[in-house]
Specification:
The protein is mostly beta strands. The chain is about 10% helix and about 25% strand. The relative contact order is 0.21.
């Protein structure tokens, strides 16, 4: 979480999976993050890439 915040990508949630010495992470962020975003290069990982995004209802919208 600290590394994401330091890169300007504060996470709403973070899921980690450790398997055979490899750690995988899935983070939920606000906004849209495109492949090649320079903030991804600031993360202390071998590879970081966006997997997709979803819509969030506007505040006060009927739900």
């Amino acid at each position: 979480m600290a590394a994401l915040s330091a890169a300007g990508l504060p996470a709403r949630s973070l899921i980690l999976q450790r398997e055979g010495g490899v750690v995988r992470a899935l983070a939920e962020l606000d906004g849209v993050l495109a492949e090649g975003d320079p903030r991804l290069a600031l993360l202390p990982v071998d590879r970081a890439l966006p997997l997709g995004f979803y819509a969030v209802p506007e505040k006060g919208a009927p739900g």
